[in-house]
Amino acid sequence: GLFVKYSWYITVAVQHVDAPFKLLQLPLRVLNFNIPIELPLNTAGNPFLAQNYKHPPVLDFARSAIDETTSARHHKYFKINNGTNSFATVALFKNIFKLGDDITCR
Q: What highest taxon heads this organism's lineage (predicted)?
């Protein structure tokens, strides 16, 4: 697409009982956005009073913009094969993962 800047891979290891493990590389794209962030203005009635007004975090604006752009319309399916035979299918149920999230798949 137009927003793709870099492409990396996530390496997933799969192992059956009493069998060597297999490595699968899933593509990972990093999107480059210029996110317009407009914070609300602080309009105080008395400028001499201390205000404990906090702006919403910029990360929330960025995360919502990325979520809207990359929201999953359908699940992603990846077939794992060893040459000619397909021995597993991985289904990812969401597109967006944060650092530390568990990747739940079937």
A: Eukaryota
